[in-house]
Structure formats: structure tokens, C-alpha cells
Design a protein that fits this description.
The protein is α/β, with parallel strands linked by helices and 262 residues long. The chain contains nine helices and nine strands.
Amino acid sequence: MKFKDKVVLVSGATGGIGEALVKQLSNEKCKIAIFSRREDKLEKLSKEVNKGKSECVYKKCDVTKKTDVENAVKFTKNKFGRIDVAFLNAGILIPNPIETFDGSIITKTMEVNFFGNVYFLESLLPIMKKQDKSVIAVTSTLPDRRGVPGWGAYGASKAATSWLVESLRAEAKNKYNISMITIKPGAVETPMIKDFERKGSLSSEAAAKKIINGVKKGRKIIQFPMIPVLATRLSDFFPPFVYDKQNMDMLKGEGYPKVEEK
């Protein structure tokens, strides 16, 4: 699909991949509605986009609040009359070490990374079902099939996201011509992982380019970079006794907090 003249909604728009997506979409001659919790950054980004080839509007939105999400979708629909593409990108990353295992971290992470997407889908689908063609692209993560030590909260939220999108994909396409796309990035240089160094990570700009190109080509799953994709998918086939012998500290990554037993 082409983005020209399309109405594009972007959540999590003021940082990392979301911000990079918005900036690149500014050259696509489309109409963009952007959302995040940081209204000052939304305003600044919107002004920057409006200097380019696209039109941009914004509204503050906390994805953990269902009414905020409903209002964001209504705002976009009322402004532009339709919503052709939605990039659901809001997310948080909080370590959850076993030594101080904390269920509240999982609750908070699920509220943002999973239920934020659920709320958007609930509001977007009734609109998109009435259109001739639509796209919903949801950001998950590359390692979404096996648990990564120390990152259980994040991984669980993203695995749930991948499962949900997968469960909707066939029906959404066959019944309503809505393309459901799962975005599975490996390590990307974003504010979210600034304290957790990842070797070989992509820039946000490079990640956004791959995502936009993947949507244009009609990909159902967009995953990158290639070497981590191959390594991750290979590890998916490891039997548990092999997977469990991997270096835990290496899997957690540099910068993972050292904590004492609770």
C-alpha cells in the first residue's frame, strides 16, 4: 500500500521507533494523528511534521486509560473522516529480577504494552470494518516465543500481544480487509533501552524505515535485524535443557541492575 493521502494514527509517538515513524511519514504526503502522554513533545513534533509534506495533529493520550484511547480514536476520525493505518507503538521496559520478583511490575507493564493495544483495537475495529481497506501494525518484540531471564514482565506483555494479533489476522483480513501486522524488532536504540546496551542494535530511524517498507510491501510479520532474527528463531527450537544452559547474564544484557535478595 501507499501512504499518500492516507490517514495514519501513531501511538507512543514521542520517543524511539514511534517518533522515527512519524518523522519518516512526514515525507509520505499523508495525514497523521499522533498520541503519547507528553503533550509538549507532541506539539513540537507536530510542528516539525507540518513543515514537511504531511499534515499532523496531536492529542495527549495515556494508553492505560481506556477513555483516553477512545478519545484519541474519535479525535482522529472526527478530524479526518477515516483511519486507514494505525501504528500501535506505546511501550515500557522494566527489569523484573528474580531476587526481588515484583508482581506490580508485571501489572504495570501489561497495562501499557498489552491492554493499551487492546483498547485501541476495541475502538479502531468498528471504524475499520466499515472501510474498504485498513492496516493495523502492532509493535511486539523479536523474542516473543521463549522467556528471557530478567525480562519476564516485558516478554509476557509482548508474547500476549503477538498472540492477540495472530488470533485476529485471518478473520480481520478475510471478513473486513483489515491487514493485521505484527512488528517484531530486535534491539533498537531507543530511550527505553538506553541503560541496557545491546551490541548490534539498529537506530530508531533504520527500524522505522524497515517498518514502513514492510507495510508498503504488505508483510504480515515485520522482523529485524536479520542475524538476530535467525539466531532467535533458531533458539526457539532448543529443548529446555539446552536453552537453560545459556549464559543468564548475557541474555539479560549489559546494564541489567544488580540487586540483593528480597
